[in-house]
């Protein structure tokens, strides 16, 4: 195990500095846009543009990698992303920034896909879960360091854009100098969102709803904090508190969801996130520390929802379809993250800073009601068919959706239809078997995968 982790240290360094650069940009750009007198809607459009590019990168990045190879694709995407960071300081136009953010999202999706392919291929069946768990922890926490870098210089000056560019560029060094063999070519996973919704309405709609709320938070959270009276260090601390809280909330909520109906945990988390958002709306003007306390509570309950929805969906899909399901859920999240900042920006224009968390409170409350309604219509999956939350949490943090559960079975062909890229060497292989879900008219030996997918 130590040998495997040590051999992957360079890749962990690469993803760490990459996410630091992206974390810095995610806080810097809304603040600088506000200083440049961009409208709230234009700032929201920046967040939407990033996720348009990110979704396109998940769908099309695999074609670029297959065409030129992992190392060349990585070098090209890093160079382009680094240039985009600098171009923001030169092209102070809302339209130009939206185009730059879209290209940045595409690059980061492809770059992350390449790194995850490497992590997956360099791991064995015995070490893959640990390796991907380390990657998940990095993914959940290191972005905080990037956000705190906003305090180093004035957002109105050039140095912060230069630092973001430097961090992204440095990510290329460990990969460019590696002597390891490049991963196997990238294949495409078929994505059928309608089929996925029939399998799990709560999981699919939940990922879309999380995209609506989290996408709005990332795009407009710094503007909310600034309009609420926080200075630049306060904005950085506000965003960092929410992110750290999100990392801390993953395990207790996941532990609970492994033991009771996940939809109950999802509903409670949504209601708690909604109350935290309402707390920020009601108390941020007359309670100095309230905004940070409620930001922590919001992060604890709002950010783990995506992983919970992935885990819930995995309870209702055959094990061999986990990768396809994860890819479809990522697409649902991206669609929500495109629409969320635009909707929230309209409300902020109409109602001021409070419009952001009034919007997230409403979305979370509505989805909690939907989860409760589904609980009344169908029993939870039997214990023998329930996925483990930690596996879903790892899948939820990846772009290529490597599978921590099974040893890769070798190359497969390219799937039909719309696809999201994944490493060609990744599953499905000998997946852990589940006892079939017995229903009227089915015997205990009935093949669950051959039947119309169940609804939750």
Number of helices: 18
- Please report which band the strand proportion falls in: under 5%, 5-15%, 15-25%, 25-35%, 35-45% or over 45%: under 5%
Which CATH class applies here?
Mainly Alpha
Tally of strands = 2
Q: Describe the biggest sheet? A: 2 strands, antiparallel
Element order: H for helix, E for strand:
HHHHHHHHHEHHHHHHHHHE
| Full CATH superfamily name | MFS general substrate transporter like domains
Radius of gyration equals 21 Å
Helix residue percentage: 55-70%
Q: Could you say what the CATH architecture is?
A: Up-down Bundle
Sheet/helix structural class:
mainly alpha
Low-confidence stretches: 400-419, 421-454
Which word captures the global form?
globular
**Cα distance spanning the termini:** 38 Å
CATH topology: Growth Hormone, Chain: A
Number of domains: 1
Could you tell me the mean pLDDT?
81
């Amino acid at each position: 195990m130590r040998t495997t982790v040590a051999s992957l240290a360079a890749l962990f360094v690469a993803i760490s500095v990459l996410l630091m650069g992206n974390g810095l940009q995610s806080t810097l750009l809304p603040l600088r846009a506000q200083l440049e007198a961009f409208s709230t809607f234009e700032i929201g459009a920046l967040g939407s543009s990033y996720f348009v590019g990110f979704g396109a990168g998940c769908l099309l990045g695999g074609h670029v990698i297959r065409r030129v190879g992992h190392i060349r694709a990585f070098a090209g995407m890093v160079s382009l992303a680094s240039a985009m960071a600098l171009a923001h300081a030169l092209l102070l136009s809302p339209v130009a920034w939206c185009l730059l953010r879209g290209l940045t999202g595409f690059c980061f999706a492809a770059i992350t896909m390449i790194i995850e392919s490497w992590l997956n291929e360099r791991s064995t069946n015995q070490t893959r879960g640990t390796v991907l768990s380390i990657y998940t922890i990095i993914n959940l926490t290191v972005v905080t360091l990037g956000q705190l870098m906003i305090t180093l210089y004035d957002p109105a000056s050039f140095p912060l854009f230069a630092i973001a560019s430097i961090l992204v560029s440095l990510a290329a060094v460990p990969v460019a100098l590696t002597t390891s063999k490049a991963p196997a070519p990238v294949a495409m996973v078929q994505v059928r969102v309608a089929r996925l919704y029939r399998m799990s309405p709560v999981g699919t709609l939940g990922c879309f709803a999380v995209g609506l709320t989290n996408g709005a938070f990332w795009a407009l959270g710094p503007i909310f904090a600034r309009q609420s009276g926080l200075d630049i260090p306060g904005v950085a601390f506000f965003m960092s508190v929410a992110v750290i809280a999100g990392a801390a909330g993953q395990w207790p909520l996941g532990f609970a969801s492994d033991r009771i109906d996940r939809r109950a945990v999802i509903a409670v988390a949504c209601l708690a996130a909604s109350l935290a958002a309402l707390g920020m709306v009601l108390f941020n003007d007359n309670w100095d520390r309230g905004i940070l306390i409620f930001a922590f509570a919001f992060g604890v309950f709002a950010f783990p929802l995506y992983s919970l929805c992935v885990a819930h969906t995995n309870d209702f899909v055959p094990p061999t379809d986990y990768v396809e399901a994860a890819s479809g859920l990522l697409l649902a999240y991206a669609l929500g993250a495109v629409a969320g900042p635009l909707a929230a920006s309209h409300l902020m224009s109409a109602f001021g800073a409070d419009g952001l968390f009034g919007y997230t409170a409403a979305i979370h409350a509505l989805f909690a009601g939907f989860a409760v309604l589904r609980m009344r219509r169908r029993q939870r999956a039997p214990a023998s068919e329930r996925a483990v939350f930690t596996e879903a949490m790892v899948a939820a943090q990846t772009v290529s959706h490597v599978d921590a559960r099974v040893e890769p079975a070798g190359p497969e062909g390219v799937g039909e239809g719309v696809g999201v890229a994944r490493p060609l060497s990744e599953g499905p292989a000998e997946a852990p078997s589940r006892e079939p879900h017995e229903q009227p008219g089915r015997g205990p030996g009935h093949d669950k995968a051959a039947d119309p997918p169940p609804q939750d």
